[in-house]
Design a protein that fits this description.
Number of helices: 16
Shape: globular
Radius of gyration: 21 Å
Helix content: 40-55%
Order of helices and strands: HHHHEHEEHEHEHEHEHEHEHHHEHHEE
Largest sheet: 9 strands, mixed
Structural class: alpha/beta
Strand content: 5-15%
Distance between the termini: 37 Å
Length: 363
Amino acid sequence: MTDPTVARLRLIRTTGIGPVTYRQLIARFGTAQAAIEALPMLAQRGGGRAPRIAEIAVAEREMAATARLGARYLFIDDPDYPRLLAEIETAPPALILRGDIAHAARPCIAMVGARNASAAACRFARQLALQLAEEGATIISGLARGIDTAAHIGALGGRSSGGTIGVIASGIDIAYPPDNTELQERIATEGLLLAEQPPGTEPKARNFPSRNRIIAGLAIGTVVVEAVPKSGSLITARLANESGREVMAVPGSPLDPRAQGCNLLIREGATLVQSAADILEQIRPFDLRSVRSPIDAYAGSPPEDADDRDRHRIAALLGPVPVAIDELIRQSHLTPAVVQTVLLELELAGRLERHAAGRVSLR
């Protein structure tokens, strides 16, 4: 009998199986093994070939490497999977962690900003993080140079009752940048270190936006301390806003390009932050107990079978321009479950691409 963990990892590591697809497959077939066995049939209905499924040996080697590193897996249907993260559509099906997952159960605040931040901004971020941690909050950041580093160091300082979470774009065993190796190890020991990628994965540009969605998804609110326009920090802020979370920003001089991103956020409606009290005022009305458990958030109604007429109707509405799934449901006059089934089949056949904000297009 196949180990359920092995089957889940095989499905997660299969090329073309993203978080949304994984969730729909489990909702429909109940187990990862059953979903794996159904992939060829689904892809054939979508008019293509099934993706190449990750081998059992690949999953077993990853599990062994994770265990050797003193890390463990956290799957999206585990009871201690972070509740807020489970709420977002693209929540990672599995995380690899070192440290204490209890840090994610406290009120979490993301703090991000420029890598080449000014000395004044780094000092301010460090003080903010320290004061928030002393109030029992957990500070989340991405272990980059500049503001990220300052936020982690601040949260680890003093006699705080909170803590810090580092979310990295590499494997759990890879420190990036290298000069943060000692800090990353300290976070894994005193706080919580999270990675979505398998051990041994070097940081790649395409993995950083994925890392940013985890940072935003874990937090009640995101604070941007210093950022240029079109930076990764503003991507994190946008993702937080799309998830219905608070977005806050520290204002800066209009003469400093590194402040332009924050000033832009404030102009567009972000809360202006001048002290830790401003942040606490925004997040304290939020009650984590009102958020569904990860198991409830993960559970969804299984897709319904579609016939050839339904498939043709949906395919005719799709094209190279991304369109909202809600619009497909409206124009096709089909149930959401049937539309999701057709989209799932097209995606597994390699004919569909998913975009941000629940939009899809043909490849």
